[in-house]
């Protein structure tokens, strides 16, 4: 029996969207974009401004930005890749919103991220708390947004899904 796979992702600038598409292609997976109910503007994403929306959200560990839309058939998926850009060395708070919105019992969850230079930081540690029912949590991996299909396929093969 083959596993049903979902690639869910949040992308503020399009970088993570490209990577998510490549992962979905390599894993023969469905694709779901995690869209904020209130879209981020360039000003919202200005991490140099302590009063920007993203800065305020990331400073507040309890912030959970609302999501527009939902995965209608989440119970059908065995494996869920969750993608995002790295913000302040962790996933954006909207990823916690996503993980806390579904029951991941019996599922394998695999985070992946894009970043120009930052590593995954404490991302796994933070996100696992939002997804305590995941049967299997795979350690997250950071990629450049231009990762090629061969490299992605090799990573997926190593995951032994």
Explain how this protein is built.
- The protein has 161 residues and is an alpha/beta fold.
- 29% of the residues lie in helices and 20% in strands.
- It has helices spanning 15-27, 53-59, 93-100, 123-130, 149-159, and strands spanning 5-9, 30-33, 35-36, 67-68, 79-85, 108-114, 136-137, 141-143.
- β1 (5-9), α1 (15-27) and β2 (30-33) form a beta-alpha-beta unit.
- α1 (15-27) crosses α5.
- It starts with a strand and ends with a helix.
Helix content: 25-40%
Order of helices and strands: EHEEHEEHEHEEH
Low-confidence stretches: none
Shape: globular
Query: How much is the radius of gyration in Å?
Result: 15 Å
User: Describe the biggest sheet?
Assistant: 6 strands, parallel
Helix vs. strand class: alpha/beta
Strand content: 15-25%
Q: If helices are DSSP runs of H or I spanning 4 or more residues, what is the number of helices?
A: 5
Averaged pLDDT, please? 92
Counted beta strands: 8
Distance, first to last CA: 12 Å
Keywords summarizing the entry:
8 strands; globular; six-stranded parallel β-sheet; alpha/beta; two-stranded antiparallel ribbon; 161 residues
